[in-house]
User: Fold this.
Amino acid sequence: MRRQRRPCIVPEKLRPQGRNSSHLPAASATALIMADNNERSSQSDILRPGPAILLGTLGVVFGDIGTSPLYAIKVSLSGFPILDDEHILGVLSLLFWLLTIVVSLKYVACILRADNQGEGGILALMELAIAKLQGRKRWVYITFGLVGAALFYGDSIITPAISVMSAIEGVSIISHRLDAWVVPLSLVVLASLFAIQSRGTGAMGKLFGPIMLAWFVIIGLLGLWRTAQSPEVLRALNPWWAWQFVQDAPWDVFLLLGAIVLSVTGAEALYVDMGHFGRRAIRRAWFGLVMPGLVLAYFGQGALLLHDPAAIKNPFFLLAPKYALLPLVVLATMATIIASQSVISGAFSITRQAVQLGYWPRMRIEHTSASTEGQIYLPRVNLLLFIAVMLLILGFGSSDALAHAYGFAVTGTMLMTSLLAFMVLPRQSSGVRRFLWLLGLSVFLVIDVLLFSSNALKIPQGGWLPLGIGITIFTLMITWNRGRDRLHKALSDDTHTLPEFMQGLEEFPPARVPGTAVFMSMIYGTVPPALLHNLKHNKILHEQVLFLTVQTARVPYVPFQERYEIERIGRSCWQARATWGFKQEPNVPQMLEQMAQDIPEMNLDPLQVSYFLSRQTVLVVRKLPLIARLQRRIFAFMARNATRSTRFYKIPPNRVVEMGMQQEI
Assistant:
């Protein structure tokens, strides 16, 4: 028995490699190399963050946190019955140092170091954390990652609503007669945004960078202008004001953290989008433009309030002179659309990762760009987000009412990120450096716990919304993952070992027909049900047979030259295991083209290949406790509504034979 293997299924570290593609057909080689190069583009960007990369970083990464000045100061200071200088300076000092510690130190300086082959995000961090764990401890960290991902969906729903509404609420400064138009205009803007998602962000993306560049420059200049009029506001840079504020009213400050945290919403996006632009580009953009622009905008609002406390009704838009108010409303609306697009795209990306890692059923994924691998569109996710955002705007009616719901989702995800970072960052060092990592992460964790606890007190005022969304999605993720495990166990218990079964067929061979049969097998090394049904009912076997199992690696990308391993288990029979990264989409026909060049004796001509798939109908065992039966029914419902394997694996439908079967779990 001859065995052939690719060099490696899951590489320890993705790095640029040479390849010999001269043996491939021109079209196939070009397609494979282009796909692989697109997947690695983020790696090269880490080394060369030029002007175009920095501009793109502004447009994609900083949209969410960049629009926080629209509402953060207003929400933080609106609760004081009498607004005096101590309150303004204390809140500004807390805000500045929170921005410095949470964003600059925690995320930009530390968390960006926890990259999974250049990729970031809470699911990528989770995979790093559980890489060497087993048993109960592994499931604890999986829970942290899934809770953070589930809360991110709450953020994806609330961010478009609160951002766009806060921008359009600027029209009330022009005239109170326009107040009634805030909700309708917000609905129209966001409905238009969701309607064009299927066309992709390529064309819009070219405008994102310049618009956000103009946004940060303009809000920075407006803040600088107001700060120059009341320079005493700069005293808030002294942390003594924050400390004194805490000493005077510790409980009030604890409650206030739930509002001040709005200034750091979007910090998680810096980590999520690291794979697109690289940590160096994010750091340069943050320290070079974004943070200075945000700090000036916040201090400008503080200076305005020191001069005129009545401006608390909308301190951001009152930064501008009257003649510039309408253009600022238009610019703010465009900036909030960009912020909304960022979290919508993030929801698409995290859903695809969850599908690939086995925590969500297969979904229809459409690529909206022929050259950029990361630009995807998920119709079901887009529809659900659209419905949720529309209901949110109609239900809450203002950005102030949504602010209570916003902080819970953000701080929950930030807390889960810190907990996962404890497992990843310290083990990269030893000795004193390891101790310093643990000390620094402990400080960040204490801050995250305080922020999350403060927002947890606002559950009755709106925090129930992201909490409910998070619990629902987390439950569905766990149900799907455990249901798949139960289904795999049931199938493996009922099947034979594949090599022994095929050797037995050679002793009593069935009738052979021309061509090659590719049997998609859920479990490597076992007899797929489709083969048993084919032999039972058709009583034939193709001249050549390939058993293919598709798996997802615990890394984001697997180069195509390391995509599969194959073993010969009979005279004209092979079994193969194909592996894609969790940020890649399986393409079985493309992989078979590659396999045909490596193993010429296999007949993998697309016109000679037939794909055999098993389509399981899940049945729930009735004699189960109520909760267990309910979980299995939810899994069965999700399985019935999952995208067909043919679409997910890019298999031509006219080459597929499906064998239906029922399986109890």
In short: The chain is about 60% helix and 10% strand. The beta strands are 3-4, 366-367, 376-377, 511-520, 540-552, 564-570, 573-580, 609-619, 656-664. The longest strand covers residues 540-552.
